[in-house]
Sequence to fold (106 residues):
Amino acid sequence: MCFEPSARPPEPPRTGLLDRSEHLTLTAPDGNALAATVALTTRERAPGVVILPDIRGLHPYYEALAQALAGAGAHALATRIRCRYPSWTIASGTSVVWSNRSTSPT
Fold:
C-alpha cells in the first residue's frame, strides 16, 4: 500500500464493538521475537483477520486498521513479519522514527 507516513485508515462507522487493543511480543519457536498489535471486538463468535504490513513494518497505520476492524466486529492481529525483533526495540544501527515510536529498519 502507498500512503503518507502520517496517514491513517478512514474512520469506520462508530459501532462500539472495539473492546481493547494492545502491543504484544510474539515468540517464534526458535526464540526470535515478533512485534504485534492485537485488537479485540466485543462481538460474540467474531471472525479473525491477520494484517501483514508492508516493508515499513508495524506502522501506526496498520495498528489503527486493526482497531477499525475490531470496531467493525472482527478480531484483528497486525504483526511485523519482516523483522525478527519487536518494532519498539532499537537494534544496533540507525533508527527510524514513525509517529511517537522509534523502530529499527527492516
In short: Residues 86-106 have pLDDT under 50 and may be disordered. The first strand starts at residue 18 and ends at 27.
